[in-house]
Specification:
Helices cover 37% and strands 17% of the residues. With 295 residues, it is an alpha/beta fold. Strand 2, helix 2 (39-42) and strand 3 form a beta-alpha-beta unit. Helix 1 (11-22) packs across helix 7 (186-195), helix 3 packs across helix 4 and helix 4 packs parallel to helix 5.
């Protein structure tokens, strides 16, 4: 099957593209520029990189017109220049849905976020939720996956956790109260997304997607630290202190260790979906434990 992927050069998108190609699909990756893809994608004959920014509706039409399905994985966790939450998550989805109407395409599989919902203090959550709602109202054969913390090669969460542990003798826990986190392996998520491609029983469904384990942030820090033979002191700090630190990092670092949207994520449960979603079928559930992939 020929399929298209938005956000296919990002962390989740890249793993998905490779999983699709490995199972025999022809994959067209929509990019902001022809040179933005990773070398591993460029060297695969089953993968085509095509310049079709999510902000440009006509280019999206040209890119997907002969495809049978689209995986919508584009997303950002902080705003930079013209890359805003509203522009990427909402307007980008609007452009994609316009292209669906023009081409008559019906099958759409989207990656959102576990806790995306209408909440006034997080543009990330609000815009992700808005894009979900737009897709649900578009009359398509859609499936939406809502992962929480996703880990694997090239991730940000575990990578930045390691950098923080290596850089400071203490680790500030987000908030004075602990919340559960269920990290999910990116390979499990990619496989599940490939598996639902032609499964009509998943049409019109919104699935939470989390890993098989529940940790507190303190337990996660200790697990990661143990792998690199460090024993940091963990200290609970108020959420506002982390927001301030994230704002400073975002304004001074090219790759901030923490963003304001991530502070919001870590200040609540990353094991439980809100609002409620459809129950995830047993055959799609994640099975990989975090320790199996930590190095």
């Amino acid at each position: 099957m020929r399929v298209a992927v938005t956000g296919g050069t990002g962390f989740i998108g890249r793993h998905l593209v490779e999983a699709l190609a490995a199972t025999g699909h022809e994959v067209r990756v929509l990019t902001r520029g022809v040179n933005t893809g990773s070398e591993s994608l460029k060297d695969n004959p089953s993968i085509e990189l095509i310049e079709a920014p999510i902000t440009n509706a006509p280019s999206i039409v040209r890119a997907i017109k002969d495809c049978e399905a689209v995986f919508h994985c584009v997303g950002i966790n902080r705003e930079q220049g013209d890359q805003t939450f509203l522009g990427v998550h909402v307007e980008g989805t609007r452009h994609l849905l316009s292209a669906f109407r023009q081409t008559g395409l019906k099958r759409l599989i989207m990656v959102s976020f576990l806790r995306a919902r209408q909440m006034l203090d997080s543009p990330y959550h609000v815009t992700k939720w808005k894009s979900e709602e737009m897709i649900r109202e578009a009359g398509l054969d859609y499936t939406i996956f809502k992962p929480g913390v996703v880990f694997g090669e090239g991730d940000q969460f575990i990578t930045h956790l390691k950098k923080t542990i290596l850089s400071f003798p203490f680790f500030g826990l987000v908030g004075m109260k602990s919340h559960p986190i269920s990290p999910v392996y990116v390979g499990d998520l990619a496989k599940a997304m490939v598996d639902v491609l032609s499964d009509s029983s998943t049409f019109g469904k919104t699935y939470p997607y989390v890993g098989p384990e529940r940790f507190t942030l303190k337990e996660l820090v200790e697990l990661v630290a143990d792998k690199i033979n460090i024993r940091p002191t963990t200290i609970p700090l108020p959420v506002f202190a982390h927001r301030l630190a994230a704002l400073i990092m975002e304004s001074t670092m090219k790759e901030p260790l923490l963003t304001t949207s991530q502070v919001t994520m870590l200040s609540e449960s990353l094991s439980d979906v809100e609002p409620e979603a459809d129950p995830l079928p047993q055959n799609l559930q994640a099975v990989t434990r975090l320790a199996e992939k930590l190095t």
